[in-house]
Amino acid sequence: MKQEHEDLVLKACGAKSLQIGAKIQTLWSGYGEILRVHLEGCDRPSVVVKHVMFPQNQKHPGGWNTDISHQRKVRSYQVETYWYQNYTTNEHCRVPICLAAKSFGDEQLIVLEDLDVAGFPVRKTYVNDAEIKACLSWIANFHALFLDVVPEGLWPTGTYWHLETRPEELEAMSDQKLKAAAAEIDSILNNCRFKTILHGDAKLANFCFSKDGLQVAAVDFQYVGGGCGMKDVIYFLGSCMDERECEKRVPGLLDHYFSELRKSLDMKTNFQDLEKEWRSMFAFAWTDFHRFLLGWMPGHHKINKYSKRLTQEVLNKLKQS
User: Fold this and answer.
1) In 3D, which of 308, 313, 310, 301 has the Cα closest to residue 242?
2) What is the pTM of this model?
3) Are 44 and 18 in contact (CB under 8 A)?
4) Nearest alpha carbon to residue 205 among 239, 158, 228, 244
5) Helix residue spans in the chain (DSSP H)
6) pLDDT in tens, 10-63
């Protein structure tokens, strides 16, 4: 870590010295890394530093090394920095506190509270029913908090897969029926009456759990922006359940999400209308993500019978309308 980067961390935390700890992960396509930094002489034992470095040669795991892809990523880190500096949540949808954020030419540093120290030390690749519901509660509380809030400084449309930012993947699709319907599906989702701010990348890997698994915090706000809440819900459910589990468990889990959403909203909201609209958007949101996968990575394991069934339902609905 460069001296100016170290100075930023020391100043932000009021620490006397620091030691670079383990690399938590490399950022997508080699755009930097996330590190744990150990501190001395202050009340925080450690912080997490997201160090973004825009590469000269991009290495995309799916082979999408294009200028559109690069510009989207650059914008995503600007959005994430803006999010951490300008938006706050509450204890029902916990996120790490941002201690500092600064650009250094082609590099960017975000200094964040260490969620391991804050009581969320567990990461999971498999979750039980209670843990899935803990994440859905977080998502519901987040959506309630930002219902009808204009996503100023964020993506006008949240998520990394929405149609406007993915022309190349659309072009690559071989499913002609879905390809032809993609713009209409996107328009239906974008023209919802009820909108919120979406996390935008609410997969299981972006949730940090308490030791008992019943409390969660979320990280990674590169694709935070406006839209229909179902987009976060379908993406989360698809990230932690296979097709058989989805068939069996989605109805009850959706009920849990809407129950939590109702509890979190004030009485001014017409909840009945909101629930009716968003439930009707579930299959559209799922199909929209399925469209992205078919163009981006046609052999992806999430392209399954459940996704295909929902897609067919949506295409049938569009034919009838």
Assistant:
1) 301
2) 0.95
3) no
4) 239
5) 3-13, 67-86, 129-145, 167-172, 176-190, 230-240, 243-264, 271-296, 305-320
6) 999 999 999 999 999 999 888 999 999 999 999 999 999 999 998 765 555 455
- Residue 33, burial from CB neighbour count under 10 angstroms (0-12, 13-18, 19+): middle
Q: Which of 83, 6, 92, 86 is nearest to 47 (CA)?
A: 6
Residue 3 contacts by C-beta under 8 Å, 6 or more apart in sequence?
none
Q: At 7, which amino acid appears?
A: D
Residue pair 216/209 in contact by the 8 Å Cβ criterion: yes
Calculated CA dihedral for residues 161, 163, 169, 173, nearest 10 degrees: 120
DSSP state at residue 142: H
Q: Tens digit of pLDDT for each residue in 242-283?
A: 999 999 999 999 999 999 999 999 888 899 999 999 999 999
The tokens for 59 are 């290495």
Classify residue 146 by burial, with Cβ atoms within 10 Å: 0-12, 13-18, 19+.
buried
